[in-house]
Amino acid sequence: MDNLLKKITAPNGGIFTGQGTNTYLIGKEDQTLVDPGPNISEHIDEIIHQGEGKIRRILVTHTHKDHSPAALPISKKLGIPMFGRLVDGDSEWEDETFLPDVVLGHEDIVETNEYEIEVIHTPGHASNHLCFFLRNQKCLLTGDHIMDGSTVVIAPPDGSMRAYLDSLELLKNYDIEKFAPGHGNFMDDPMKTIDSISRHRMTRERKVLRNIETHPNLTLDELLPYVYSDVPEQLFPIAKMSLMAHLIKLVEDNRVKCIENIYSLI
After folding, report:
1. Comparing C-alpha atoms, which of 49, 46, 54 is closest to residue 26?
2. Which of 32, 67, 118, 261 pairs as cysteine with 133 (C-beta 3.0–4.6 A)?
3. Residues 145-167: pLDDT tens digits?
4. On the CB side of 114, how many CA atoms lie within 13 Å of its CA?
5. Which pLDDT score is estimated for 151?
C-alpha cells in the first residue's frame, strides 16, 4: 500500500483485546489517525512520535474503552478534530470521554490529496460501529467488526446479532482486497473471511435451536453450557453475551419464545 498505512499496537493485550488494540496512521504528509486506543501515556507518546507532526484528524470506529479513550487527549495536544458517532442507547462498554467534533454517517467521505476514506456504518458489535474503506488501496479498516484470530463479541442491548450479520453482508458490495483489523494482523481474502464468519454464526444459531429442542424450558444460564460445550468454562461470561444476542434474534425471528426468562421453541 505504498507505505500509506502504518499500524501501532497498544500495550493493552488481554482476553478481549488479543495482542492489543491496533491504531492506524493513514497517509504521509496529511495523516489520519484511526482508533487511537486506550488512554495509556506511552501509547499516546508513540502515536505522536510516529505521526511526526503530520496528524490532522482522528477517526474512531466505535467508542468501546479499548478503541477511543486516547482520542480526547491527543485531540487536545495536537489541536485536531475527532470524527465518529455515538451509540444509539446505553452501553456499559462505552468511553464517555468521546464526543465527536464531526459526526460521521454511512457513505461519508474523508478526502485528502493522498487518499480517500469511505465511511461504512456497520452496526452489530456496537450500534455506532464504522468501518473505514481506503478506496484506492482497496483496504478496509474493520475496527472490531472483523478481528484476526477470534470471533467478535456481540453484547446486547447495544450489540445486535441481526445487525451484525446484515453488516457482514453489506461489505460484500465493496471491492475489498485486504482487512486491517482492530486486533491482530492484516488479513487477505476478505470475502472468504466474511463467509466463514457468517457460517460460524449460523452454525451457532442452529446449535442454540437444537439445544432448546433437546433441553426445553431452560434459562439462558442453563442453556449456556450446552450451546457452548466447545468453549472453556472460563470463557462462559463472554459466551453468555453472544448467546443472549442469538436468543434475541431468534425471538425476533419468531422461532423461539421467552416467557419469564424461560426459552422454548415456537
Report:
1. 54
2. 118
3. 999 988 899 999 999 999 999 99
4. 15
5. 87
Co-location of 30 and 74 in the same domain: yes
Confidence (pTM): 0.95
- Domains contained in the chain, number: 2
53-57 long-range contacts (CB < 8 A, ≥24 apart) are 54/27, 54/28, 54/29, 54/30, 55/25, 55/31, 55/80, 56/30, 56/31, 56/32, 56/80, 56/112, 57/32, 57/33, 57/81, 57/82, 57/83, 57/110
Q: Please check the confidence at residue 14 and state whether its pLDDT lies above 90.
A: no
Tell me which DSSP letter residue 28 carries: S
Distance CA 120, CA 33 (A): 17
Q: Which residues form the domain of 166?
A: 5-188
**Among 15-24, 71-80, 193-202, 249-258, the least confident range:** 15-24
For residue 218, give Cα distances in angstroms to 177, 197, 236, 257. 44, 27, 17, 11
Rounded Cα distance between 266 and 125, Å, is: 27
Cis bond before residue 157 (omega within 30° of 0): yes
Q: Quick check: 45 and 23 in contact, CB under 8 A?
A: no
Do 20 and 132 reside in the same domain of the chain? yes
Residue 213 and residue 146 share a domain: no
Please tell me the predicted confidence (pLDDT) of residue 149.
Answer: 82
**Which residues 6+ apart lie within 8 Å of 203 measured at CB?**
none
Q: Which of 153, 188, 223 is the last residue of a domain?
A: 188
Task: Kindly state the cell numbers that stand for 175.
Answer: 471491492
- Beta strand pairing call for 109-111 and 187-188: unpaired
Residue 188 has which C-alpha cell? Answer: 487477505
Rounded Cα–Cα distance for residues 52 and 117 (Å): 21
List pLDDT tens digits, range 50-67: 999 999 999 999 999 999
